[in-house]
Amino acid sequence: MSTSDRGLSLLKKMGWKQGTSLGRRGDGILKPVEVEVSNIRMKGNTRGLGFGKETVKDLVRPFPGQTVIGVVKIYSSGEHYGAGSSYFGRVYIPGGAMRHILNLTKVSSHALIGKAVRVLLLGSEENAKYPWRVVRCI
User: What pLDDT digit, counting tens, does each position of 102-113 carry?
Assistant: First the structure.
């Protein structure tokens, strides 16, 4: 670390000493967070942070029958089923759950796109197209 760093001087003014950890209780990080900076914004690059980095391996794969409570953002809505995404991965929303969500929100199925709902999710089989399925709204 350079002694001319603005952040370092602020930390020292607040009583921090080099070699000690951060945090009120002294149990925080010892090394600064490293940031890789390369080609931040090249001409024509309109991708956001994390674009293209999510892989199927990175998503939380459920055990068949596993249940979790999560928030699902709906990205596809139809008469008989819908689809969404959550922290856990892609989610299938069966017709009954879609009708229930429509009744609760009192909007058309097309107006649901982009909305987030809190639901109980059930894990599907390992090779299923959607690893999670909505069981009910919460």
Answer: 888 888 888 889
Structure confidence at residue 36 (pLDDT): 58
pLDDT tens digits for 50-87? 555 555 554 567 788 889 999 999 999 887 899 999 98
Distances in whole angstroms, Cα of residue 60 to Cα of each of 85, 88, 115: 12, 5, 22
Question: In the chain, pLDDT over 70 holds for what percent of residues?
Answer: 76
**Among candidate residues 67, 86, 87, the one with its CA nearest the CA of residue 75:** 86
Name, in order, each residue with C-beta under 8 angstroms of 63's C-beta and a sequence gap of 6 or more: 123
For the residues of 28-75, what is the DSSP string, one character each? S-SSPPP---S-SS-TT----TTTT---GGGS-PPPTT-EEEEEEEEE
DSSP state of 78: -
Q: Would you say the C-alpha torsion 20, 22, 28, 31 has a positive or negative sign?
A: negative
Domains of the chain: residue spans and CATH: 56-137 (2.40.50)
